[in-house]
Amino acid sequence: MAIQAPGKRPGARLEHSKVFGKKFVRAKKLGYASLMLTSLVDMFTIIVIFLLMNFSANGEVLYMSKDIKLPDAFHGAQLERAPVISVSNDAVTFDGRQVANTSDLTKGDLLNVPALEDALRDERRRFEQIHQNEPDRPFRGLVNVQADRRIAFRVIKRVMFACNQSGFGNINFAALAKGSAPKDKKVALK
Amino acid sequence: MAGASPHPAAKGGKKALDAELNLVPFIDLLSCCISFLLITAVWTQIAGLQVASSGGPPEPQQNQEATIDLKLLLTEKGYSITMPGAQVDIPKIASADGQPAFDRKTLGEKLRTLKSTLPDQTAITVEPEDAVAYDDLVSTVDACLGEQLRNVTVAPLN
């Protein structure tokens, strides 16, 4: 017996009948297929809500580098935009420009780092020139220090000394926020 | 199919009550939103621990009578909390990898006890040795901030 397509199969006489024959004529399939867009819209909406919940209007404050692995902190505040001093195992950079070698800072008894101090003084001068007509925006001496977790304090203290010498007294140590760090609280300024 | 075209009139000239929404512009909008949010997303939350360095201006204390000169030393032996007339040593403990590590839990307990005794105390000076790692310094400052010692000054020990 021949293989037949499933479905109703009329007899030969009924198939040619003018009255009943139309019931068994198969219509041509349309070329358009309807898509179920509801689930797609649902999924898009959920993704947008998730991304909006995680959205940060501040953007990236620090330049994240592969060489620098930040320590964790549970009680940190939100970082403000400020000049960034990065200390990796190889180099000390100020806003992305290398100002010293880390290995050089581990040697000697002197605390000063002339290149870093010059860069910080230039930054201070630049800020004061830009905001000289804005008395409500005084220079606050805010600087973010981002160091690798293994960097010894003998390097950090020289960086802090350079900041102090250049008038940047508000030092923020950068760390990865863990736990329930308050998002809306910014680092208090003196 | 999602479209704005109305249904043909039903039998008897009655208009159908169901209307289909045109979802295509909505999907376009959502796609743009997702692209924008994905590009501008910041996946790592960075925290800042504000400290003053020893050369900076001294932080004014609210009530000088109720506060003391509190120092927290980080040495190769461990923590050492010093205050006028007293000293508390917290030796290092063995960490998970067998290396000696600073005992942050005990430090938190001691600072909590201290804070309950002196509720107006907000200032503390953290003095690490040169060999102390940035990780240990940050976790110590973090512990101080967690116990409401908000005015942390960092000064070299030697």
Question: Outline of this structure?
Answer:
Chain A contains five helices and seven strands.
Overall shape of chain B: it is: elongated
User: How much helix, percentage-wise, in residues of chain A?
Assistant: 25-40%
Judged by helices, strands and strand pairing, the structural class of chain B is alpha/beta
Number of helices of chain A: 5
Overall average residue pLDDT of chain B: 81
Describe it for me?
The complex is a heterodimer of chains A (190) and B (158). Chain A has 190 residues and is α/β, with parallel strands linked by helices. In chain A, α4 packs across α5 (153-165). Chain A has a domain at 72-177. Chain A starts with 11 loop residues before the first helix and ends in a 13-residue tail after the last strand. Chain A has helices spanning 12-15, 38-53, 102-105, 114-130, 153-165, and strands at residues 72-73, 77-78, 84-87, 91-94, 97-101, 142-147, 170-177. Chain B has a domain at 52-154: Nucleotidyltransferase, domain 5 (2-Layer Sandwich), CATH 3.30.420.270. Chain B is 28% helix and 24% strand. Chain B has three helices and eight strands. Chain B has helices at residues 24-40, 104-117, 134-146, and strands at 46-53, 71-74, 78-83, 86-91, 93-94, 100-101, 123-128, 151-154. Chain B starts with 23 loop residues before the first helix and ends with a strand. Chains A and B meet through α2, β1, β2, α5 and β7 of A and α1, β1 and α3 of B. β7 (170-177) of chain A pairs antiparallel with β1 (46-53) of chain B.
